Amino acid sequence: MFRNKAKEIFSEFVIEHKENVYRLAYSYVKNEQDALDIVQDSIVKGLKSLHSLKDDKVVKSWFYRIVVNTALDFLRKHKRVQIVDDIEIHASIEETKYHDIDLERALEILPLPYYEIITLRFFEDLKLEDIAFILKLPVNTVKTRLYRALKLLRMNME
């Protein structure tokens, strides 16, 4: 019985937050088709691991963790080095609704651990505790990385 309820809750969450999930995947791979593949793979993984979802109140952070891990696995598998030119930056801004080209460029050069924290905190509007859960880090590590990421962003923007 719980399985059917969990499946229903998960399905509703995915439908309601599909744009955010896509944007999260896209923020890692910077490619529309790859991001769609990651979202699709994440949904399949989520359906297969619904049994591990103990509390329906944590669906968002639980599924975001799956999306992040799937994106990181994809990047490791393809060993992608992102080369960003002006066309990609412009397309990325339209896709993710970042309106500041300087901010976009500053985000692009952040190391991945800092980029993840900034993306999850400010563009996905997640709490520090949820980010810690998604990235499997202590909350204090998330706070430290957020502070350092913001400091690096300020330096890169100047």
Automatic annotation (TrEMBL):
Gene3D superfamilies: 1.10.1740.10, Winged helix-like DNA-binding domain superfamily/Winged helix DNA-binding domain. PROSITE patterns: SIGMA70_ECF. It comes from the Bacteria. Residues 102-153 form the RNA polymerase sigma factor 70 region 4 type domain. InterPro entries: RNA_pol_sigma-70-like (IPR039425), RNA_pol_sigma-70_dom (IPR014284), RNA_pol_sigma70_ECF_CS (IPR000838), RNA_pol_sigma70_r2 (IPR007627), RNA_pol_sigma70_r4_t2 (IPR013249), RNA_pol_sigma_r2 (IPR013325), RNA_pol_sigma_r3/r4-like (IPR013324), WH-like_DNA-bd_sf (IPR036388). NCBIfam families: sigma70-ECF (TIGR02937). Belongs to the sigma-70 factor family. ECF subfamily. This is RNA polymerase sigma factor. It comes from Metabacillus fastidiosus. The lineage of its organism: Bacteria, Bacillati, Bacillota, Bacilli, Bacillales.
